[in-house]
Design brief:
Length: 201
């Protein structure tokens, strides 16, 4: 039974592909949501994150305030590395447990894990296949500008800060190119999902 890691850069359309797969019946997990639960009070990373960064990162309700933590870690590569070393292994363990629980409940279809940082966090070992969504730079700029209202310079900075498509593709089992229309993307996603169901036995 397959576990599929779905990844892609900003503006590639990874989340759109994840949504389409879910509509087609793919059981799925969103690594972002798992990340939020990991930080929550009582969550597996909460105490370690507070111990590492101090109580000044907490909101009045004792939750980790991402607006306070963000500037600390994104302004300093060493601090970001420290945070990732606490959070990424715990997220991996949590996602493995979630996949295990889905299988134990009798889920036999391929399970899709949507994760922007699948490769950077070294979560590949939990996946049987890695699907990478790509789009041309021009399409990425166009989409992010339209959908998130970000300035081109901001988008360019985000692209530079993340793994390149060329690097992601080195790990890809399958590449989903997303330079066309939504209908073209849906047709491609339907095709690869049907093929995955067939491979899954």
């Amino acid at each position: 039974m397959l576990t599929i890691g779905l990844t892609g850069g900003i503006g590639s359309g990874k989340s759109t592909v994840a949504r389409m797969l879910a509509e087609m019946g793919a059981p799925s997990l969103d690594a972002d949501k798992v990340g939020h639960s990991i930080y929550a009070p009582g969550g597996p990373a909460y105490d370690d994150v507070v111990a590492a960064f101090g109580r000044s990162i907490l909101a009045p309700d004792a939750t980790v305030d991402r607006k306070k933590l963000g500037p600390i870690v994104f302004g300093d590569p060493a601090m970001l590395k420290k945070l990732n070393s606490i959070v990424h292994p715990k997220m991996l363990a949590e996602m493995r447990a979630m996949v295990g629980a889905m299988r134990a409940r009798g889920e036999t279809r391929p399970i899709v894990i949507e994760a922007a940082i699948l490769i950077e966090a070294n979560w590949m070992p939990m996946c049987d296949e890695i699907w990478v969504v790509t789009a041309s730079r021009e399409r990425v700029l166009e989409r992010v500008e339209r959908d998130r209202g970000m300035a081109r310079e901001q988008i360019e900075a985000r692209i530079r800060a993340q793994l390149s498509d060329a690097e992601r593709i080195r790990y890809a089992t399958l590449i989903i190119k997303n330079d066309g229309t939504t209908d073209e993307l849906r047709a491609e996603v339907e095709r690869v999902w049907r093929a995955a169901l067939a491979r899954n036995g």
